[in-house]
């Protein structure tokens, strides 16, 4: 536990030195510089630690219990910061804000109490970079696993992230109070600080500082990976979040220290057989396969689902390996494990596989039996199996294609393949810049919606905010929101504020969708047939803007993804 607390603290400290803190620096500087009490910077940071920790641990649960939107706390923080800004600029309002603290024996709002309230407000809008520690905390909170361990890890992370901000606040205060000429004009400086606080708060609210944040190089990423990515730490984080560890990852981590780079690939354990498969296709007579039948071959088991954009970007690499190396003894088995209800329909998967150019065997794992046998947690995920049935390598999510192909070639050569073709030359389309996160539309997993609170399983009229907050979507008109999708009614539209090269939406039903970008009509899509992924927007450069989608009644919207 001590190691995990130390790593959480260091991870937070690295976050506090990263580009993630750019949006909150002006708030910290303005808040720290307006009072003469040396306690004020410490109170600001204490408030930030308290509110950030509570928001991370129980914010989502409390909001769900109260029936409030998941972005309520963010907008509450924005509102409080604006009130505090007005209090700094207008003395009479500032005195009104001070009264609760005067009753507590605090002599001046600007000197002590207000600093803590400012920190509380700032903690609600502080969105740090999501490394492994923060990801584990988020998963633990989502699974309602609020234990003493998760509490102390969260606080340790928050304290680490806040320390650089504390230093910044102290320096800002010393820069003002250390100069007699500035000290003599503190009332005027309060008004200036209030204006800075107001402008910065509005910029955070509407995402105006995001381009600046993205423009600063991610110089701490490698250090964060080094601190938070060790095998022992990841194992403790898995226990903290309640996720089961992938047995092949555990075995690889255990073997890593004992093998040299030049030694053959590690043996990670016997691969489980295909279990609970409801249907097969692309096999002779669509008959089942088993790993015992495939002994003597090199086998790549690829977990995928057809509407997943991450899988669709990875599939050309898998298809390329199959096309180039099948004559040398490579067998690829695509295990289709569904995410949405329509992906349970075998004919839908078969149709999508044909459209995506998949010619290798596909197993339909509707009940997650094979997924669970591998302790898998990812779409896509690849497990490379040697001719004796041992797992020798794995790869999760997008990327890592050259390494996996090198491992495939190593096993094929060891199995006697001669004159292997040149490595495949498939473009790697894995995003290298952080984009808007995947956004589910069905209420079961929705977390990035804004505007009118969603009502489950009932057709109501929605109203989108103007403007739509960054990285969120909002309904307009009549929608009936279900657990996995929302069905359009009359005058239905969705407004999406995004940052990405490409925007995709999984849709079903029958009808049309008109797509506009920043008020300019782009295209009208005809939706019909098997529910699938549609491309709404595609550019060669990252774009930050708003898509307005107008739906005809009956079209179903499932999930936004980005590239």
Describe the structure.
This protein is 43% helix and 20% strand. By secondary structure, it is an alpha+beta fold. Strands 7, 8, 9, 10, 11, 12, 13, 14, 15 and 16 form a ten-stranded mixed sheet that branches. The chain has a six-stranded mixed sheet with strand order 1-4-3-2-5-6, sandwiched between helices. It is globular and about 85 Å long. It starts with a helix and ends with a strand.
State the main characteristics.
563 residues; alpha+beta; Glutaredoxin; Jelly Rolls; 3 domains; ten-stranded mixed β-sheet; 16 strands
Share in β-strands = 15-25%
- Please give the domain count: 3
Radius of gyration from CA coordinates = 27 Å
Largest sheet: 10 strands, mixed
Low-confidence stretches: 102-113, 256-263
Instruction: Report the principal-axis shape.
Output: globular
- The overall strand count is 16
Q: Which structural class do the helices and strands define?
A: alpha+beta
| Contiguous helical run count | 18
**End-to-end C-alpha gap:** 37 Å
Report helical residue fraction.
Answer: 40-55%
For this structure, the quaternary state is single chain
What's the rounded overall pLDDT mean?
A: 81
């Amino acid at each position: 536990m001590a190691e995990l607390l130390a790593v959480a603290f260091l991870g937070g400290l690295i976050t506090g030195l990263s580009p993630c803190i750019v949006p909150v620096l002006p708030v910290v500087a303005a808040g720290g510089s307006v009072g003469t009490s040396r306690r004020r910077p410490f109170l600001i940071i204490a408030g930030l630690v308290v509110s950030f920790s509570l928001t991370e641990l129980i914010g989502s649960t409390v909001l769900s219990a109260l029936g409030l939107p998941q972005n309520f706390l963010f907008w509450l923080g924005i509102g409080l910061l604006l009130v505090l800004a007005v209090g700094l600029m207008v003395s009479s309002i500032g005195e009104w804000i001070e009264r609760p603290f005067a009753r507590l024996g605090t002599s001046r709002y600007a000197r002590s109490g207000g600093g803590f309230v400012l920190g509380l407000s700032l903690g609600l809008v502080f969105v740090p970079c999501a490394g492994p520690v923060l990801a584990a905390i988020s998963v633990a909170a989502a699974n309602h696993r609020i234990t003493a361990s998760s509490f102390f890890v969260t606080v340790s992370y928050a304290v680490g992230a806040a320390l650089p901000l504390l230093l910044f606040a102290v320096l800002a205060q010393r820069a003002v109070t250390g100069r007699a000429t500035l000290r003599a004009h503190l009332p005027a400086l309060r008004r200036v600080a209030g204006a800075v606080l107001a402008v910065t708060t509005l910029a955070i609210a509407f995402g105006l500082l995001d381009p600046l944040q993205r423009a600063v190089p991610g110089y701490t990423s490698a250090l964060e990976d080094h601190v938070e990515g060790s095998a022992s730490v990841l194992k403790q984080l898995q226990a903290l979040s309640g996720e089961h560890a992938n047995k092949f990852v555990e075995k690889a981590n255990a073997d890593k220290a004992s093998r040299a780079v030049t030694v053959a690939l590690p043996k990670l354990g016997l691969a489980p057989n295909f279990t609970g498969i409801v249907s097969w296709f692309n096999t002779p007579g669509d008959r089942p396969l088993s790993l015992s039948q495939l002994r003597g071959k090199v086998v790549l088991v690829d977990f995928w689902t057809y509407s997943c954009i991450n899988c669709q970007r990875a599939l050309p690499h898998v298809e390329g390996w199959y096309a180039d190396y099948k004559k040398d003894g490579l067998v690829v088995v695509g295990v289709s494990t569904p995410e949405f209800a329509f992906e349970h329909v075998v004919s839908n998967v078969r149709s999508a596989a044909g459209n995506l150019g998949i010619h290798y065997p596909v197993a339909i794992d509707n009940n997650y039996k094979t997924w669970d046998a591998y302790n898998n947690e990812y779409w896509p995920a690849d497990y490379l199996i040697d001719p004796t049935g041992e797992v020798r390598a794995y790869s999760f999510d997008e990327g890592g294609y050259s390494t996996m192909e090198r491992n495939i070639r190593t096993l094929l050569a060891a199995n006697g393949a001669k004159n292997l073709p040149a490595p495949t030359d498939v473009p790697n389309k894995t995003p290298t810049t952080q984009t808007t996160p995947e956004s589910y539309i069905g209420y079961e997993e929705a977390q990035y919606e804004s505007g009118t609170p969603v009502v489950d399983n009932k057709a109501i009229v929605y109203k989108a905010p103007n403007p739509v907050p960054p990285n969120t979507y909002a309904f307009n008109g009549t929608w009936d929101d279900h657990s996995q999708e929302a069905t359009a009614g009359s005058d239905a539209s969705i407004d999406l504020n995004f940052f990405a090269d490409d925007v995709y939406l999984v849709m079903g039903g029958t009808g049309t969708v008109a797509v506009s970008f920043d008020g300019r009509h782009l295209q009208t899509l005809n939706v019909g047939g098997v529910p699938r992924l549609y491309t709404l927007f595609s550019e060669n450069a990252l774009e930050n803007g708003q898509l307005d989608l107008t739906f005809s009644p009956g079209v179903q919207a499932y999930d936004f993804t980005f590239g």
